[in-house]
Design brief:
Layout (H helix, E strand, L loop, with lengths): L2 H17 L3 H5 L2 E8 L5 E2 L1 H9 L6 E13 L2 E11 L6 E10 L2 E8 L3
Parallel strand pairs: 1-6
Antiparallel strand pairs: 1-2, 3-4, 4-5, 5-6
């Protein structure tokens, strides 16, 4: 598979779980030792990911666009994405997301808010 397909498969699973507000299912898309940095202090591992997404409001949805990909090794893909998080009660939030995908799971997740 090419880099874009690998990244899209992982991010589609992530998006589906985020949109369904199923924090445990979101966490299943991460490695057990994933470094996770959302817009709150970072955490490590699936439990940290699940706690973060459990704290998100009901109705949160994500739309992403892959901007760049790089194959780092046979089983590692780096991705840079634009993500719009939509809410039911406030304007959408646009962020940039860097992910490192290893063996079809997210090993590193870093969100940035840029002007």
């Amino acid at each position: 598979m090419n880099e874009t397909t690998i990244l899209q498969d992982v991010m589609d699973r992530w998006k589906d779980a985020v949109d369904a507000h199923e924090p445990e299912r979101v966490a299943e898309n991460f490695t057990r030792d994933a470094i996770f940095q959302g817009l709150h202090p970072y955490g490590v591992g699936r439990e940290a990911v699940a706690e973060y997404y459990d704290s998100q409001p009901l109705g949160l949805t994500a739309e992403y666009k892959i901007l760049e990909t790089r194959r780092i090794s046979d089983d590692v893909v780096l991705g840079y994405l634009s993500v719009d998080f939509s809410f039911t009660d406030r304007p959408a939030l646009n962020v940039y997301l860097s992910v490192l995908v290893r063996d079809d799971l997210i090993a590193h997740y870093q969100v940035s808010r840029l002007p």
